[in-house]
Structures are given as structure tokens and as C-alpha cells.
Write a structure and sequence with these properties.
- This protein is α/β, with parallel strands linked by helices and 578 residues long.
- The protein is 36% helix and 18% strand.
- A five-stranded parallel sheet has the order 3-2-4-1-5, with helices on both faces.
- A hairpin with a 7-residue loop joins strand 8 and strand 9.
- Helix 16 runs parallel beside helix 17.
- The longest helix is centred in the N-terminal third of the chain and has 38 residues.
């Protein structure tokens, strides 16, 4: 290394040390300055000073179909199960709230008035407002949200407000109502369909082609003007027309005519309400394809006198046949006045006092199960016991407990049928000769007497009481007496006695259906002629038996060339006695 190089290197090192010292000095001064500033500035909390806004909610627009609750899609049902708030338009949406979790907020969106534009704007504001206060909002719309509905406008309002949304399609009235009326929209040779919504719009119908199928919405109020406009557009006066009101529900009514006669036909039928109108040759297929309005109990108003918690399956079955069931509570199931007898029996069951337990109703199974829960017991308490059930429904209730009954009647499902199959007491095979029989306070003595004759000792214990319910409202009582109900279905002898006691005897024109021989006997004792009886004692078979009666009655009228009427539309002088 040359002297010059050494001098240069030394100078660089000196400069580097000087620069480092200067940098450190500056850093020290900065740190001291910051510390001094911090000491002079009041200390603040360590939390963020940025204001946190509540996140906007999420809206799902769900189409629920045109009327029949069964047309709700599985996707719609699942969305409702997770909703925090549901925006509805009226009582027609109440049926769908059963899919929601407890405590869901229900927002009434039916109050909007004025023109369609004003109504849509008001509901859009309501949906946005709800989404700002609830995390998961479901907006229910009849039909399909984006097909002749306000869903698109309301969704646009959400988009503008920065609210995310989903859409669950629904069954549109455009296709569903004609289908329920037995009218296909397309067929071989008829492949073109035009849908026209006449709400608040004076549309030019002159461009419509006479050979196509038309589906008209909101046309009832301007039906006369619409028919005239179609005639001017070249539609022939003999073109078939169908007007369907209450589509897809059990109150559905269809009026069929031609462009020349339909205005007078609708006026004569006195149908009112929103309608879907189909114009075209496809209407002629209704005579062969009508499947809904020809159901055996279609339009029948049926009284279901039952305990409130047991009416559901029977009413669902009747609706399947096209009926309009109305539940009227006649019995209330209550605990026994003195629970000590039941408590003693349960203790005896656990201690091995019984050989058999005989259940004669679903309510008896429920009563014993509630006692088990009270004592902290479960199905293991039945270990070593034999279980008998009076019928299939009772056996199902026991099966839900994880137990398979040892004995169910092979013949008639009743107390008498159970006695016929019950084995006699055998001193060698049966270590205990006692039977625990939990049942209602008003049960018959058939089973007790039969088991006693077979050598068994029976502990007949009141597990529950059946109490007569309060009388139904005056309009219901009047409908029962005057024959405005087409049929009454009795599910037990007590329902016969209690209905007659709180509301009077059904009118002579009313069809009577009963669940079994014992109920038949009670009905006849009260002066009623029974028209249908279930082949087996179940509510489903009871509905099936009434449906068979209705189908036979309809066939008889059709074969005789008579118009098909409901029982309430006829008034025979008196009911024949059996």
C-alpha cells in the first residue's frame, strides 16, 4: 500500500467515525425531543380513536310461491331457519314463519299504500332500514322475486345502500296457477307464450299474435277492456279463456269460457280477488288434465274437533285431498288431580312390582315419560318388563323412546283387540301377576275387565285427565248447526260427546267420519248417522276413509250428469238414522 493510499483510507475511516457519531447524536436528540414532547402531552388511552360503524346486514329475497305453502323450496326453508328478521307482506306469509328460529323479528311490510311505484319504494326503504339493524334479513315475496314481483327494485335499493343480498328463486304464479288449474302453457303446435301484466299500465295489445298463448296478470278489474282489445288485435271470439282465483290453494276457483262469454261468466260465478287468466287453445286441455280441483275433498270445509297438539297430522292429510280443515279444540289434556297414585305406580315399576305395562294411547305414553323425566329416569327403567300398545300409533310413540312393544293387537286396534291377544296369567311362567295400566280418567273398563278375567291384577292408574274445552266462537257454532261445514271427523268418543256438548249436533247435511267402532257407537247414540269409518284406528286412515267417501260421491254425481256439489251446498230435510 502506498502512503497516498494509506492516507486516503485513514481519512475515510475518520470520516466514517465522524458520520456515525453525528448520526447517533441526531438520534439521541430526536429521542430526547420525542420524550420531552411526550412528557408535555397528556397521555391517551391505547384504544383506537377511529369510530367503528355497525356493519350493514345481509338480505335474502325468498320467493315463497303463489299460495300453497308446500311450494316453498328447500333453499328458502334453510334461509328462514337462520334469519334474524323476516319482512312479510301480510297474513299469507305467516305459514312460513314456522321454519324460523324462536325470537325472530317479524317486520310487517303490508302497510304501504298508493300506486305500485310508491308501494315498492316504501318497502325497499323498509328492507334497507331493517338490514341496518339486523344481521341476517329475509324478505318474503309471493311467487318468484324477479318474475313480476318487486324483488328487483328492492334489491337495487339494497345495492345502492351498500347492503349485500342473495336471491332464492320461487315458483312463479305465471306457471304454477295454470298448472294447478290443469292448463299446460305449451303443447305440440302451441309453443309460444306471452305474459302481460296489466297493473296500472295501459299496454298496447294490438301487437299480440292471435295464435299464441297469453297469460294475463292483474287483468280482472279491466277484463272487459282487455277482451275488447284482444278482439281488436284479431283474436277470435271463440278463443278459450280460463280465469283462476286463489290459485294453488284449497280455495282455488276456475271459470272457463271464451272471449265472447268470459266477462259474463266471471260475473255470474261471483268470484273475486286476484286472478291469473290464460287465453288460448291450451285451455281446452283442462277438461282432461284438471287434477287439483277434482280431488275427492276439494273445497270441503271440514271440522276437526281434537286436542290442539294432535290436530296437525290429520289436518295435513285432509289438505292433501284438497280440503280446508278447521281445528276446534274440544278436549284439553291435563295432569291428574291427585298425582300420588301415579307417583306410587312409577316407584312400583322401578321396584319390580309389575310384569306388564299397557299403554292405551299416545297421551298415556307422554304422561309416563313426563313422570320419568321428573324422577330422572329413562327407558332403562323398563328393563325386565313386557310392554303392550293398543295400536300402531301408540307403538310408534313407545318406539320413539327406543322401546319395541312386546304386544300389539293383531286384529282390531282397540282395548277389546288387545284383550283378545293378551296371554292369560301362568303361575309357572309369570313370576308377577300385576299389570300397570296408565290411562285417561274417562277410559272404558273393557281392558281392565278382560285382563282380570285372564287372571291378572290391574293397577288402573289415572295418568291424565281429559277436560272439555271452552265453546268455540259463535260463528263456528252457527256454522256447525246450520250445515256450513261439509264434514266432521271424530277421532274418539270423547270428541263426539264434547263437541255436541259445547257446540251442538252437526247439521243433517254434514258428512260424519269416525276413527273406529267405539266412536261409531257413540256418534249413533247422539243421533248422528256415520258415513265413513277408518279401517284401522289412525288419523291418516280416517282422512283416507273420508276421501274414499268423497270420491264415490263425486263419481255418482258425474255418472248421473249432475253438477258436482259439496255437502254444504245441499240441504236434505233430515239425516237418515242408521
Amino acid at each position: 500500500m502506498t502512503p497516498a493510499q494509506g492516507t486516503s483510507t485513514a481519512s475515510k475511516k475518520t470520516a466514517h467515525r465522524t458520520s456515525t457519531k453525528t448520526t447517533r447524536a441526531k438520534a439521541d436528540v430526536s429521542a430526547k425531543t420525542a420524550a420531552t414532547a411526550a412528557s408535555r402531552t397528556p397521555q391517551k388511552a391505547a384504544t383506537s380513536t377511529v369510530k367503528q360503524t355497525r356493519p350493514l346486514g345481509h338480505v335474502t329475497f325468498v320467493g315463497v310461491g303463489p299460495g300453497d305453502p308446500a311450494l316453498l323450496t328447500l333453499a328458502g326453508r334453510d334461509v328462514l331457519a337462520n334469519a334474524d328478521a323476516v319482512v312479510v307482506e301480510g297474513p299469507e306469509h305467516d305459514a312460513f314463519l314456522t321454519y324460523c328460529k324462536p325470537g325472530v323479528e317479524v317486520v310487517d311490510g303490508s302497510g304501504a299504500e298508493g300506486s305500485r311505484a310508491l308501494r315498492v319504494a316504501a318497502r325497499a326503504r323498509l328492507v334497507v332500514k331493517t338490514a341496518k339493524s339486523a344481521a341476517n334479513v329475509v324478505r318474503l315475496l309471493s311467487g318468484d322475486p324477479f318474475t313480476f314481483s318487486s324483488g328487483a327494485e328492492e334489491a337495487a335499493a339494497c345495492k345502492k345502500a351498500g347492503i349485500a343480498f342473495n336471491v332464492v328463486p320461487g315458483v312463479s304464479e305465471v306457471s304454477a296457477v295454470p298448472t294447478y288449474a290443469g292448463i299446460p302453457l305449451t303443447m305440440k303446435g302451441d309453443r309460444e307464450v306471452t305474459v302481460v301484466d296489466l297493473a296500472e299500465n295501459k299496454l298496447d295489445l294490438s301487437r299480440l299474435q292471435p295464435k299464441q298463448t297469453l297469460v294475463l296478470l292483474n287483468a280482472c278489474e279491466v277484463l272487459k277492456e282487455t277482451v275488447a282489445a284482444l278482439a281488436e288485435a284479431g283474436f277470435d271470439a271463440s278463443t278459450p279463456v280460463a280465469v283462476t282465483v286463489g290459485g294453488t290453494t284449497t280455495s282455488q276457483t276456475s271459470v272457463v269460457g271464451t272471449l265472447e262469454t268470459i266477462v259474463a261468466d266471471v260475473r255470474a260465478s261471483k268470484v273475486t280477488g286476484e286472478a291469473v287468466i290464460v287465453v288460448g287453445a291450451v285451455v281446452e286441455q283442462r277438461e282432461a288434465l284438471s287434477w287439483f280441483e277434482t280431488k275427492p275433498l276439494f273445497g270441503w270445509r271440514i271440522l276437526v274437533p281434537r286436542t290442539k297438539d294432535q290436530a296437525g297430522p290429520l289436518m295435513d292429510r285432509l289438505r292433501r285431498y284438497g280440503a280446508m280443515p278447521e281445528e276446534v279444540p274440544t278436549i284439553s289434556v291435563e295432569p291428574p288431580r291427585n298425582p300420588q297414585q301415579m307417583d306410587k305406580a312409577i316407584r312400583g315399576l322401578v321396584e319390580g312390582r309389575y310384569e306388564w305395562v299397557a299403554f292405551t294411547s299416545v297421551n298415556a305414553v307422554k304422561a309416563v315419560r313426563e313422570k320419568f323425566d321428573e324422577y330422572g329416569l329413562d327407558a332403562r327403567a323398563f328393563s325386565g318388563l313386557k310392554i303392550a300398545a293398543v295400536g300402531d300409533k301408540t307403538a310408534e310413540a313407545i318406539g320413539a323412546w327406543g322401546i319395541r312393544p312386546d304386544l300389539v293387537p293383531s286384529g282390531e286396534q282397540s282395548a277389546a283387540g288387545l284383550v283378545e291377544d293378551w296371554p292369560p296369567f301362568d303361575e309357572v311362567l309369570d313370576p308377577i301377576n300385576r299389570v300397570f295400566l296408565p290411562r285417561a280418567d274417562i277410559a272404558t273398563e273393557t281392558l281392565v275387565a278382560g285382563l282380570t278375567d285372564l287372571g291378572w291384577e290391574v293397577d288402573d292408574v289415572t295418568a291424565y285427565r281429559t277436560v272439555r274445552a271452552a265453546p268455540p266462537p259463535a260463528p263456528t257454532r252457527e256454522a256447525i248447526k246450520s250445515g256450513k261445514f261439509d264434514a266432521v271427523v271424530f277421532t274418539s268418543s270423547s270428541t263426539v260427546r264434547n263437541l255436541v256438548g259445547i257446540a251442538g249436533k252437526p247439521h243433517a247435511s254434514t258428512v260424519i267420519a269416525v276413527i273406529g267402532p267405539a266412536t261409531l257407537k257413540t256418534a249413533e247414540e247422539h243421533g248422528l248417522r256415520v258415513d265413513a269409518m277408518a279401517e284401522t284406528p289412525s288419523v291418516e286412515e280416517l282422512a283416507d276413509a273420508l276421501a274414499r267417501f268423497g270420491a264415490d260421491r263425486r263419481d255418482t254425481m258425474v255418472e248421473a250428469g249432475e253438477p258436482v256439489t259439496r255437502p254444504s251446498e245441499r240441504r236434505p230435510g233430515s239425516r237418515r238414522k242408521s
